Amino acid sequence: METMKLYNGVEVPANGFGVYQVSKEDCKESVLTALKTGYRHIDTAQSYFNESEVGEALKESDVPRKEIFLTTKVWIDNYGEGKTYDSVVESLKKLQTDYLDLILLHQPVGDYYAAYRDLEKLYEEGKVRAIGVSNFYPDRLVDLCMFAKIKPMVNQIEVNVFNQQVEAKKWADKYGVVLEAWAPFAEGRNNMFHNEVLQAIGEKHNKSVAQVILRWLYQRGIVSLAKSVHQERIKENFDIYLFELDNDDMKKIETLDTKTSSFFSHQDPGIIEWFGQLIQERRQ
């Protein structure tokens, strides 16, 4: 398993398995299949509502806990000094582990500075091996890098061939922050799996479009987080290390960048309102 090293020396498996939108019914078996396939990086979140199922899979698996890189993310409603800390302790119970390899703040809204101080405390106490953020745009990431006691080690953001995040990568590299890509396949939007450029590159290497995308991320130094509940696709998504994209391939993929999210923008006031409304609805 290839890895990428964080600035504190912790190594992150470069090819991760995510469980966003994986149901409680499918989650345990999917994680077990991923671990049997060779995955050693599992990514979940409080807001995915499947931490317990991930924990059951880790307990049942023959893979030792120390060989698994486990990530979860703190949801907005758990932001706040003390509140964030307690929510992570609760996540540890659900995941049936006494430490996390990585804990992230899920969204750059709400009282994230207070929440981040709790992550620093958890890191200093040894309950987590690394801390970071998710969905932070370069300005918000640099803000934390400049003014937090411990700068983020990871920023998990949307990265795919249509939203390549060149500017975000530049700033992350400057501060030694590793990028992780959620939605590397953009959930199949914009007809991604039938894109002619990607299909041609795949045919050239006798690989699928999905494998081309994951290999492209790896060669850019970005951790990928693919998800599937299908055994064959899980195996296919893991098999990205026995071929290499050449410079011509990489340049062709560069031309697909629209610099636009396939989902939403955190700089849209309407989206921030939506997050606030979602929190209120879940509290009721």
From TrEMBL:
Residue ranges annotated as transmembrane are none
UniProt-listed PROSITE patterns: ALDOKETO_REDUCTASE_1, ALDOKETO_REDUCTASE_2, ALDOKETO_REDUCTASE_3
Q: Where is this site: Lowers pKa of active site Tyr?
A: K73
- The NADP-dependent oxidoreductase domain sits at 21-256
What Pfam family does this protein match (any one)?
Answer: Aldo_ket_red
Q: Report a single Gene Ontology molecular function.
A: oxidoreductase activity, acting on the CH-OH group of donors, NAD or NADP as acceptor
Kindly identify the residues recorded as the active site.
Answer: Y48
Gene3D superfamilies, sorted: NADP-dependent oxidoreductase domain
InterPro entries xrefs: AKR, Aldo/ket_reductase_CS, NAD(P)_OxRdtase_dom_sf, NADP_OxRdtase_dom
Tell me which family the UniProt entry assigns to this protein: Belongs to the aldo/keto reductase family.
Q: What is this protein called?
A: 2,5-diketo-D-gluconic acid reductase
| Species whose genome carries this gene | Faecalitalea cylindroides
Classification of source organism: Bacteria, Bacillati, Bacillota, Erysipelotrichia, Erysipelotrichales
